[in-house]
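Marked as duplicate of an earlier ticket. Keeping the data here for the record.
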Amino acid sequence: MALSCSSLCSRLSLVRLSVLRTNRTTSVLYSPHVSCQSRLPLCRLYSSSKATRGIGRYITSRLQLVNSKYEGFLKRRFPRFYQLYHTFVEGFKLLYQDAKDVRRIKSKMFFDGVKYQDLPYRDMEKLRQFRKNTIKAFPLVVMSIPPFANYLVFVLMYFFPRQLLIPHFWTPRQQVEFREVYNSLRARHHWPVLKGLENTSQQVKDSQLQSRLKDLCTKVKSGSSPQVSEILAVRTLFSGPPLGIHRMCVDHMRRISPLLFLSPRLPGFLIGRRLNTHAFELLLLDRALSRMGHHQLSDSELRQACYLRGLNSDSLSVNQCREWLSQWLEVSSSLKDSEVSLLLHNIVFLSANYPNALKRSH
């Protein structure tokens, strides 16, 4: 009995001791003097993140202030260098925005299963322009890799902006000037293309189609712009030999290549492949633009679309550009995939005399 009582007392003392420890621990946890200490890591984390954001905003504002003062100094003391500096800064911003847009478009194509031919016009044009700019800028990037070669690259960029820089890094004046240069280079090849068509017409067996093609070439050479119906009347000649995209002779492909700013000095099979790729890309762009409606284009987008298709849009008003583009799309929307070669020759048919023919009509 004594043993049982002693064991019971010892157990009760242990329970009492554990309860006292529990109460002491609970009181410590919920004591107002210790609660801040127990939550100190969380408070420190919250306050440190808030302080970090504040420091980041302060540094950003100071950098913006220093940058604005630096730009003001350049603008006052070195105006020509400031224009070059400002053009490069804005160009990099546009290039970065283009890269973000291309990533978004590629993600949409990959995750949503959207095909290239089903993209909206602006997305399709963004991909085309970004790919073109990347190809043009790639040699310049490679040249700047060796040590101290970037200084030579800067010199070349300053003296040869049209050949080395993409349009993002051109000033507004340079953009108009360089487009004029490219239009003049493209116009030099109008006459050889027309002469090649006249020579190729001798191979056409259908006398009626042969006569229509000769009349079309004669009308363009005389300084007039043909009607859409006159162009579409010969479209069957551009689906097979001798003017189909896969059936043209190498000499004629070399005459057409400069119309798209492609080199005619490559081997024949490469010229044919590049012409085929660019022609179908242009056809898909036209179909996407027809779905959207060319009236939704801004003035700059309208001029860029006309320039891509061979028109010197800087010398025309917005209404004249819109009228010309509607004629182009009328031809393009009537073509099959097999007749895409006519789209390349349409650069000559519609754009060779458009401003001059417009002046004579008035």
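See parent ticket for discussion. The CA atoms of residues 102 and 126 lie 7 Å apart.
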